[in-house]
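Bit of a strange request maybe. I'm writing a small parser for C-alpha cell strings and I need a real example to test against, not something I typed by hand. Could someone generate the C-alpha cells for this chain?
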Amino acid sequence: MAGEIGMKKFIAILLVLCMTISPAVIFAQEDDTCVFELKALNILRDSDGYELEKPVTRAESAIYIARLLGYDNLKATDSSLPFTDVSADNPAYDAIAMLKDLGFVNGATETTFEPDTNIDKYMAAAMLVRALGYEMVASGFGGYPEKYLIMGGRLKIFDGVSNGDTFTLRDFAQMMYNALDVGMLEPSSYPAENYQVSKENTLRKF
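Reply from user aminoacidic:
Good idea to test on real output. This should exercise your parser:
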C-alpha cells in the first residue's frame, strides 16, 4: 500500500512539472542544435553579441548570408554601391556589395538599402532561395512574396520557424540551418540551358 501511494505521489509531481515547464525549455534541444551548428560554422559568433529573440536588420542579414556563403572575409572591389545610406565604414558594406553583385539582395529603392530596417521571413526566404540557385524556379510561382513562400516551403526552409508577429534572429537562424543541406540548383550545361539539383554542393560545404 505504501509503495502504491508513493508511486501515485511521484506521478502527480511529474504531471505538475510537465504543466509548468515552459515550451521554450521543452524545445530547447532543437534550438540548441540549430544555434550549435551555426556557431560551429562561424556564422553565429559570440563576438557579435547577438540576441536570438531580437529582430534582424537588413544589414545584419547580409552579414549572416555572406558568412553562410563563405564570403565574409572578402572585400568588395567595386566602390560604386549605389546606396547612399550604406557608407564605406558600415560593417555590412562588403557583404551588401557582394550580395548585390550576385543578385542575392536588392535595395529598398534604387538609391537606398535601408540597412536598419528589420527583415521578415519573406525577405529571409528570398535571400536563401537565391543563394541556393532556385530564383528561376521560384519566378514560376508568381511575384513577391508568394514565390518565395512557395519555393521556401518546397525546400523546407520554413520548417521549425515560429509564426510570431516578430521575425527574430532565432527564426532566421532556423531558416539558415534548414538551408544548409539543400542541394543547390546548378547549370548542367554551358551555356546554361538546363539545370540540375546537385546533392554534392550545399551551403554547408561552403
